[in-house]
Fold this sequence. Notes:
By secondary structure, the protein is an alpha+beta fold. The protein has helices at 44-49, 56-73, and strands at residues 5-14, 19-29, 34-39.
Amino acid sequence: MKKFSYCIVRYIYDVIRGEFINIGIALYCPEDKFLNAKFMESFPSFKKLFNSSLNPKELKRSFIRINNKIDEYA
């Protein structure tokens, strides 16, 4: 059985109150030298939280930047 680690990726929108939303998951398997992440692909829950002030294009760009960094390490 292969061992792996995972990390829930969260967007913390209010640090003081500790409010966050889970936006993805990162997986790592050292045996296979596997590292990858998956993020939400639709944003209706974000829009409800932020009263439509969310910029989905900017959020997707952030996901791409994170994935690019993960790819560098992988």
